[in-house]
Design brief:
This protein has about 120 residues and is mainly α. It has 4 helices and no strands. The protein is elongated, with a radius of gyration of 15 Å.
Length: about 120
Amino acid sequence: MKSYKDLDIYTIGMELFYKTHTLSLQLPKYELYELGSQIRRSSDSVVINIVEGYGSRRYKNDFIKFLVYSHASNLETLNHIKKIINLYPNLSEEMKLLYEKYDLVGAKIFSFLKYIEEHWKI
């Protein structure tokens, strides 16, 4: 692994961030700076924490801490998606697909976190 860009959790997370960002802009105008802003920030935080963790990978505990933050941001994003599905039926089909993908990337982040905890050597 030469870069964080080699991590599946990063590449999938970035793809999901772009889709989430685009979809969030379809929310009603009054939601753009409320729920829309929250989901954009949490989805961005999923990947930003992977990058920051990778940057501090020399320190195992820091790497773990940022992966925990990434996983938590993923859970937050899932929660925002659930709210959008229930509040805005016109976006529900696309959001349901996003939900499934975020659920999968969350599992991958958790697995990677466990790997780092048990096997990471500098």
